[in-house]
UniProtKB/TrEMBL annotation, chain A:
Summary of subunit composition and partner proteins: Component of the translation initiation factor 2B (eIF2B) complex which is a heterodecamer of two sets of five different subunits: alpha, beta, gamma, delta and epsilon. Subunits alpha, beta and delta comprise a regulatory subcomplex and subunits epsilon and gamma comprise a catalytic subcomplex. Within the complex, the hexameric regulatory complex resides at the center, with the two heterodimeric catalytic subcomplexes bound on opposite sides.
Gene3D superfamilies tied to this protein: 1.25.40.180, Hexapeptide repeat proteins, Spore Coat Polysaccharide Biosynthesis Protein SpsA, Chain A
Subcellular location: Cytoplasm, Cytosol
CDD domains (alphabetical): eIF-2B_epsilon_N (cd04197), LbH_eIF2B_epsilon (cd05787), W2_eIF2B_epsilon (cd11558)
Keywords: Cytoplasm, Initiation factor, Protein biosynthesis
Protein name: Translation initiation factor eIF2B subunit epsilon
Naturally occurring in which organism (per UniProt): Gossypium stocksii
From TrEMBL, chain B:
Function: Acts as a component of the translation initiation factor 2B (eIF2B) complex, which catalyzes the exchange of GDP for GTP on the eukaryotic initiation factor 2 (eIF2) complex gamma subunit. Its guanine nucleotide exchange factor activity is repressed when bound to eIF2 complex phosphorylated on the alpha subunit, thereby limiting the amount of methionyl-initiator methionine tRNA available to the ribosome and consequently global translation is repressed.
Record-level GO BP terms: cytoplasmic translational initiation
Domain Nucleotidyl transferase: 5-146
Family: Belongs to the eIF-2B gamma/epsilon subunits family.
Protein name (record): Translation initiation factor eIF2B subunit gamma
Organism per entry: Gossypium stocksii
Amino acid sequence: MGAQKKGATARVSEDPEELTRHPLQAILLADSFTTKFRPITLERPKVLLPLANIPMINYTLAWLESAGVEEVFVFCCAHSKQVIDYLESSEWSSQPNFSVTTIESHNSISAGDALRLIYERNVIHGDFVLISGDTVSNMSLTQALQEHKDRRKKDANAIMTMVVKQSKSSPITQQSRLGTDELFMAINPVTKQLLYYEDKAEYSKGFISLDKTLIADNPSVILHNDKQDCYIDICSQEVLSLFTDNFDYQHLRRHFVKGLLVDDIMGYKIFTHEIQSSYAARIDNFRSYDTISKDIIQRWTYPFVPDVLSGSSAIKVERQGTYRASDVTLSRCAQLGSFTFIGQGTKIGNGTKISHSVIGERCTIGSNVTIEGSYIWNNVTIEDGCELRNAIVCDGVILKSGAVLQPGVILSFKVVVGQQFVVPAYSKVSLLQQPTQQDSDEELEYADSTSGTGELRSDQLNGDIAPDLSETASELGTGGVGYIWTVFEGAYDEEWRHSVAPIPTDKLVKLMLDKDEDEELLTQDGNVISASGELKTDSDGNGSEDDDNEDSRDDYVSFEKEVEATFLRAVHENVKVDLAVLEVNALRLSYNMASVDCGGAIFYSMMKLAVESPHNSASELHRNAADIVTTWQKLLKSFLHDIDEEIEVILKFEEMCLESAKEFAALFPQILHLLYDKEILQEDAILRWADEKEGADESDKVFLKRSEKFIQWLREAEEEEEEDE
Amino acid sequence: MDFQVVVLAGGNSKSLTPLVSKDVPKPLLPVANHPVLYYVLRQLEQSNLKDLIVVVEGEDAGLLVGAWISGTFVDRLHVETAAVPEDIGTAGALRAISHYLTAKDILVVSGDLVSDVSPGAVAATHRRHDAVVTATLCCVPISGSSESGSSGGKDKTKKPGRYNIIGLDPRKQFLLHIATGAEIEKDTRLQKHLLHAVGQMEIRSDLMDAHMYAFKRSVLQEVLDRKDTFQSLKQDVVPYLVRSQLKSEAVLSGIPQAEEDGNEKVSFPNNQVMVSQILANASTPSFHELYSMDPDGFAQTRKTHKCCAYIASSSIYCVRLNSIQAFMDINRDVTGEADHLLSDNVIGPSPKLGTKTTVGPHCMLGEGSEMGDKCQVKRSVIGRHCRIGSHVKVVNSVVMNHVTIGDGCIIQGSVICSNVQLQERVVLKDCQVGAGFVVTAGSEYKGESLARKEK
């Protein structure tokens, strides 16, 4: 900023550019602030997980270096110690023109927090690349950067350039090959300005709704369903200050991008840069881990491939895309299939078949083992006759002989699977117990993943975990160690979508059928709208009215509950009637109810108490009711000021007899009489109720008929009175 | 070509009163001294589409139009004139003449279209894609900038420059979304499954539906039969077809039989894909085919139909005569920048001009009209057999046939219908004068609509 001011005062127009020429900086978020890689990430940060036997962050850093970035700020939060230790011991700490600085935080729970913290540090001085530490790319930044700068010169509001890539999501599952949800983006084809971004489009059902002003402002808009967000952003300094100004921005896309697109006061703009032939992808879930690993092995990410990146340790690339480190002990009759990577010091026994898999360093694999499409990290022992399909096996795992991993299994660090044990598909197994607190609120999950897990780890890993093991042994067969994490309802749907295993055919078939049905509905829906544009708004209006009714009904129900609780407390604690009246009145005000409602609710509570107190026969119930009414008549009376309120009580009683307390049905006339005797109900009220009911349906008159005698008697008494006068 | 053309010529249009009357129904409203219908028929003739049905609202109007057509296009076109009741909408009009329709495809053209879009090209596009409907789209006239005169453009800039919201596939061949009328002012809602199928959709608000559609007859008739609430082609039928293009079997179960009537009889679904692929002249199958196939790529499980778009190039002239403003614009343009629409001479053979009378460029004088001394005519059209006195100024106006204009009149931005008499020193600005009206001497009017009371 300061430099820019200097530039403005300088005389030559080219000067500002010269003066603002900072070394290109990058912010690398070494924390994804999600829980998708659990349970593995409970013990090791995601950026250090091996991707084709090299920690992910190396791919990102190597790319940043090659793309001309000179200064990288690595923001670490969860397991920050591990990240910092790793970076210090790695070659990255000693590169001549490439400085890697770590920024540590212990309380950031989102990317937003991270950027706010970086803003406070005041280390970013110009345009920067914002990237997370799990991104693999080989794109050239030059053009994108130049476009960004040119746009900035013309329009100071163009503060961000997002890198996107062509990638059509599957027509059936609606997810990309990286396992991410489908993304809808509207882009102006001429300016490449991003106008609309929706990556969680479920809620709008079968429609994408574009704002009318968006179309009014842009004569041509291209709505893309075939682009993938690479999560590589070229940002101007303002981005950081925007995060600080909008302290509620957490998620880069969901809050920041959408926030900017919606906000038209500041007029900030986001643009896109589409890459054509180069590679860029982010490891967001297990499926993308699988996809990107395969891409790396198939060398789409060249020059960022294992044999180039690892440098000194000699890895040879052989035919059919097989990578083999120098000192692999391979039995003669072991079969290595195509696109397989065998790490250093690994021993493989007789008759073992391995294909489309990555095996880490110093693993011991017995004989007659089958490994397909799996990722086996370092120091893993796999005994004879095991079968692994589409699994991820972390460091130090032991598979006892004959163990079987079904597709989609994740075995976290040091898990032991017992002999002949079959780990069911999509299981996640860890030595650590599943955190019990699973909040649907994502913000809390963030917090959990950062602060909570650190403690958990030190306690449980350093300490002795043996005590728990005896009981869990059974979970993973004899001699097995580890907990199988349960999958929550609803989350199950996510499992197969994001798993390393390919999506099973039956799922696909089911999805196809579902989709057809959905569309059936959609087309019908569409017809409704078509008939006339106004029709839709009408139905909308009705909908909201319904909602209102629903709300008030809900209110009444909870009010009734509150009153009941108050009443019960009054009964059990012998609260004085005056105080109870006060309390009920307070409730009435806070729920904004009429006093009519109070009478009904109190009477309801009384009768409910009568029903709930022990009784053997109808007469006992009658006595109960009589007792309660006698004790609390003053309370009830104080809410029955006029006849309408008394009628309300009768109606309430009728309703109870029909629904919640059917036992009273037989006693209806008696109770009515009781209430009359206690002077809670006046005869006018009862007679008026009877008159009102006269015109009702036969079914509504059940209680009227039952109490006919009583009403008859009332009427006669009244007439007599009149005669007397 | 197995194409039938239906020209929906309309009848009495309320938006055009007082220009339109019982004697001059809308199709016969003269534009640069030719009835507006002439322009459409001439385009059709040039595309060699000669089998026409002209649909006119109202019996009387039908007779008038029929008489004019048989007089003008005798031996050149094979025209049937059908009169339908008024106010039944465009879809209703087609329903009423449904029994006339026999050809495989139907081209429906609005009779008030003044354009040089080639109907033949639209028909060819329709055939090439084997589409169910092909809509002609043209660029929205850019208000202000392209007009030479500033006066005409002024009102236009106030109008919203948007008529339709159109969704197109990346190759701009298929119509994926169309919003008309009130929908334009709302948020655009796009069907997701269509987006899934097509990948990306271009949404244009700078295109206009030109009211020239090619329909597959069987489908059109079926839709008209089934959806008897559909009133308008533009607002109901076309959007409906576009919306249901990936789900057509729900309502269009009759198509398979209908397709067999055509010349391509194909027994294998695979062949069908092949054939339409060749027809589509494309190396990759269109998203319709991809969508309709199972993941294994063989059986066609879903029935789809194609909605195509023919986008006229931006240089093409295309305006509908549906308002007085449009009438003025068309008159100016046809005599001016779009004069290729008329083959005739701009100035009639024998106008008699007085001394010191100047007729500027972009003007038209009908035959037999006479003008007095020291008159000025700029950017105006003057019909046949008009008598114009001396010291008359006519600017940006349209004067129809047999109009008498007294000395010293000043006429600006106005329309003077046939047989009107303007007495001396009348000043008219932005007025419309209905047929046979007499404006008394010395009166001044501004922005008014003058007409005889209908008996």
